[in-house]
Amino acid sequence: MATLKYYLIPFYLNSVIFQQPLFYLLITLSFCNIGKAQNNLTPISSNQISVIYFEKGKQEFLIRNYKKAIAFFNQAIEIQPKLKDVNYQAGLAEYNLKDFVTAIVYFTTEINNNGKHLSAYIFRGISEDKIQDYKAALNDLNKANKINKKNDLVYLERANIQFHINEYKKAIIDYTTALALNPKLELAYYQLGFCNFYLKDTISACENWKKISDLDDFKGYEKVEKICNQKH
Question: pLDDT tens digits for 84-94?
Fold first, then answer.
């Protein structure tokens, strides 16, 4: 019976921009047929195979073929379980498929494998928020904040959770911090407006909403317009 090995064959784009191999074709060759060609091919390790599966998964992810992406990510994980970012990417794919429980499992594995993974903490927290596990969500976003205190997404998402549990004053602090870091976060202005409205400060709420460039992009904008068109 012929012995099998894996090899890499590099492919190049016919472009001055791409001077490095764009991708690799994974093939299986038989020693009984390889002949002289064997000397011109590079043997591939199992770790390299896992990277190929990971890259293929990312290609599918980019075109929103999330189920195919997950299949490739799982092949990479099977070969190299601690490959950096592969569980995180699988978690994102599951998140986009709205399977938040499975996404949490992948994010947890990424955190366990690779320590202080900021994005995994953030998206695990967001996923926990989606299943209304607010305590766990806040805990993860607090951990993310310890890793990076300048990340606007951490403050935005933590504020969203505080909004969901009616902690409007705490939410205002985080929305304000998120906006200080990134003034283009129009969702923060929108939510900040509702925090002020629920705290009976309609004037401040309308000032927040006026800073949004295209209000009708937001669900419930008719309610906002009605509130601000009333006399206070």
Answer: 999 999 999 99
Strands 42-43 and 23-30: unpaired
Residues whose CB falls within 8 Å of the CB of residue 99, separated by 6 or more in sequence, listed in order: none
Q: For residues 191 and 172, is the Cβ–Cβ distance under 8 A?
A: no
Over range 13-26, report the average pLDDT. Answer: 40
CA R_g for the chain:
24
The full DSSP string for 137-205 is HHHHHHHHHHH-TT-HHHHHHHHHHHHHTT-HHHHHHHHHHHHHH-TT-HHHHHHHHHHHHHTT-HHHH
Cα separation, 55 vs 59, in Å, equals 6
Say what the pTM is.
Answer: 0.77
Contact 100, 127 (CB under 8 A): yes
Q: What's the distance, CA 20 to chain centroid?
A: 28
Residues in the chain: 232
